[in-house]
Design a protein that fits this description.
Rossmann fold, seven-stranded parallel sheet, six-stranded parallel sheet
Length: 386
Amino acid sequence: MRLLLYSHFFAPSVGGVETIVASLAAGLAELRTAAGAAEFELTLATQTPAGDFDDTSLPFRVARQPGAMELRRLIRSSDVVHVAGPAILPLALALLGSKPVVVEHHGFQTICPNGQLLIEPSGSPCPGHFMAGRHRECWRCNSRQGWLRSRKLWLLTFVRRLLCRYAAANVTPTKWLGSLLELPRVEPIAHGLVALPPRVRVPTPASPVFVFLGRLVTTKGVRLLVDAATLLAKKQRSFGLVIIGDGPERASLEQFVRGSVLASQVRFTGRLRGADLEAALATASAVVVPSLGGEVFGLVVAENMQRGLPVVASDLGAFVEVLGDCGVTFRTGDAGALAEALDVLLNDPQRAQSLGEGAARRAGQLYSLSAMINAHGALYRRIARR
């Protein structure tokens, strides 16, 4: 089967979409028929330039920055088209060419003009203004980008919804997201996790260590975590906080911490990878994911469940579904509630250990890479037959 996988973003760009797309494409390229032949002749099309990345190291062909005519040719020569995110041009070309198309939703672009389900500039969760028909609220939300840009984002949301209604399948990583989209032919397929190296074992630190891992941007809730840690520090609780990652808010966060009661308890590492990341996480008592919104699955949540670490996360629908009863959630955006959740783990190390063990089992059962790849393969076969 000739499969075209379109992802606007791909390596060397780094992010959750890029990670999932790369894992899926590599896994599909390895699937074999009973006769031993490759089941999928896979081409990945992306608008991301290669830079220093070596495409020949991949087990599939990569078409970089195809124009409209080249994209049309790639679609016409495919049996099934998979679009990572509701990108309008490849979706429209596939439907016009009568090609079965699968849309995998990695965000909220079909129900929210800014794609994040967040109210800007405050970064607070949106109650769903677009789907409720409160369109003036959508215009106001994106008004900082200018009147014309705000209206354009709003109109394109209608276009994406219309195109996705004609897709052969709308894949979502959580059932929660599928319920929000209100689109036909929704197929929930959970993201699969790449196997991690065995966890490094180190002596237990004198004080519990909480870790944040992610981009330092408003939507990830890092300042909320710092505020919660401040409340704990004022209660004379002993703990450390390690903030792993980089982003536009790092400088202001570091400046705030230096002038606060947290000065001796917080460490900023910058972005870490590979062995350095695993070594930093080896001292963690729990991982905190205080996102304010914009999450449809939560790779950071699932990956640290896989590591056997207890996770404390905001009660966004995606996080609640991924964690099940193997983590701690708190009211989104509430620093006091987060401080209370962390205090519970400080008071009960045995519970923290039990949560970590349960999280590792749940991640292994529900978020395996092979399950994600096989589910997609079965979907493509069913669609091609139909």
